[in-house]
Design goal:
The complex is a heterodimer of chains A (164) and B (283). By secondary structure, chain A is α+β, with helices and mostly antiparallel strands. Chain A contains five helices and five strands, in the order ββαβββαααα. Classes of the chains: A alpha+beta (164), B alpha+beta (283).
Amino acid sequence: MAEKMHLKLTVNGKPVEALAEPRELLIHVLRERLEITGPHIGCETSHCGACTVDMDGRSVKSCTVLAAQAQGAQITTIEGIGTPDALHVLQEMFREHHGLQCGFCTPGMITRAWRLLQENPDPTEEEVRFGMSGNLCRCTGYQNIVKAILAAAAELNAAKEAAQ
Amino acid sequence: MIPGVFEYHRPGAVAEAVALLRAHGDEARVVAGGHSLIPMMKLRMAAPEHLIDLQGLDELRGIEIGAEIRIGAMTTQHEILTHSGLAEAAPIMAEAARQIADPQVRYLGTIGGNVANGDPGNDMPGLMQCLDARFTLAGPDGTREVAARDFFESAFMTTREEEEILTSINFARPTGGWAYEKLKRKIGDYATAAAAVQIAVEGGKVTAAAIAMTNLSDVPVLSAGAAAALTGTGCGPEAVKAAVDAMQADIDPVEDNRGPVEFKRHVAGVILARAIARAFERA
């Protein structure tokens, strides 16, 4: 056992602290030490994207980030994007357009799409497919995921215009 | 699946990082984006006792565009892909970066890590040879420069000394047409074959060319023969065939789960012909 590190992170806007070995992975710190279980462990080999979280404004696979590397980081998980009572537009659109079947990949999908739409608020279908290519889904065949993200972009843009 | 035990260091200056490397020798590894090293550590194929995280070294970040282009070693693939000045000055960089891994990996994966790891599957080594880039290495006795074309010795072996850190990459602003062409089985896979091509053209004839191939030997392959075969031609079918034949004499692919040798040679030829056509068209 190595000495534990005193980790200080901001997760979903709240400062949190945890004791963890530097070699623990960010996904383990989130799920097991902080009990934030929205991000899932799929492949654990940086392929599937189920563990995607937002770290300092970037989508990352939290199975390939060491706890120590995340020291001081600002993390957003699916829990910080919407709640059962107040779904984010992306979540609404995934429901509306059947962007999920088993749902295992969905937190990672939505967390990634959330960053994608901030960087590119009006993407083409091709840009959505390119921007989502780090997230695997074994159920849907992706078509409805892409539809849901395009619909969410349109919805968010309409809301923005209405507000102006 | 977690790595073995290590002591974690996050130095705030290059000199401090070099001193740590010097103190711990081959028990230490530096980590940039970590997307090559951490998977190896999870498989326990790498087990450094000291991990030196370079993320605090802001001096290693950033892209400067002048007559020369300078890219800090900690610059991420995402930054390369989205930098508008670089897109104009050296568009082959973004064309290659967008074919590396996937969005999440590109947010963390760095050009320095891609180069210094010496993995024959990585795309930047071949591209750096095509652009005739120079690498700056910082060590205990100061810095030195090594040409990309002299840097790679064999798989995962480079001329970087154990106590040195790659800090930046410089290359002259490329001229003419460009193409980075890559065949991979799926997103996130290494190349079955990839080609980096820069071609300068005057009056319809090639005046200079540089061609480098990826993942077709245990090091990137700069094919001077292929470049020579194009020089003075209009890149017609015969010239392209001569270039592909010359390239075939320089590569040395091995059979693996991406296919047998014959298939890889076939793919290499197709990829290079496509890259030459696109680069010539853009010149």
